[in-house]
Amino acid sequence: MHNTIRKTVLATAAAVLCLTASLPAYAEETSHTDVAVMKDEAAGKDGTTSASVGKDVTVVENGSPDRDTEHGSAQDTAGTRTSHKDRTSRGSEEEYVDAGPGARKKEEPPVSTETSLGRFTITGYCGCDKCSGGHGLTYSGTVPTPNHTISADLDQFPLGTRLKIDGTVYTVEDKGSSVKGNILDIFYGSHEEALAKGTYTAEVFLMED
Which residue stretches of the chain are H helix? Predict the structure, then answer.
């Protein structure tokens, strides 16, 4: 009986010793495992945080150039619009006759149509006593001007009528006792020039706006 109890006590003590010997190794292994897991988790968290921060930094860094680019594009667009506006403004200014208050844009000359009236007899006169009797003005009250004033039959061509002869446009401003029907009398600057031109026939065009 005593031997049995003694064997049981010894077996129990041996088991306890074995268990005690194995517990530190298990505890150390568990501790190392837990530490490794914690390190991995910490590394994972740190890595995630770093990655996230890296992404944030990247977004911020990439975002700034984008905003700068957009701002630069906006400035370029504004500059282009300004340049275009300046060119338009300069073009508009060139259309003005004079700068400053009351400036007016140049008006395009009206396009005239011409109608052939056939051939007329063309004579010439000047402002001398022999040609005009010493009158310094035309019948319409204007000062006769070469390459502009012409005398005509007012029943056929009222004052102000524009007639084109040999490429020059004349305005009917005068009349003459011998200027009737299809006869037109052109004003010249001198009697000699009027004589040099003499009498001839030419096709006459009526000019109308």
Answer: 2-94, 129-132, 191-197
* End-to-end C-alpha distance for the chain, whole angstroms: 152
Q: pLDDT per residue over 60-110, tens digit each?
A: 444 444 555 555 555 555 555 555 555 555 555 555 555 556 666 667 777
From the list 127, 128, 129, 164, the residue with the least C-alpha distance to 148 is 164
How far is residue 167's CA from residue 207's CA, in Å, rounded to a whole number?
11
- Which residues on neighbouring strands pair with residue 163, listed in sequence order? 170, 206
**Stretch 149-155: mean pLDDT, rounded?**
97
Model confidence, pTM: 0.49
Cα 128 to Cα 52: distance, rounded to the nearest angstrom: 106
Rounded to an integer, what is the distance from CA 50 to the centroid of its chain?
51
Paired strand residues for 121: 183, 201
Structure tokens at 149: 């004033």
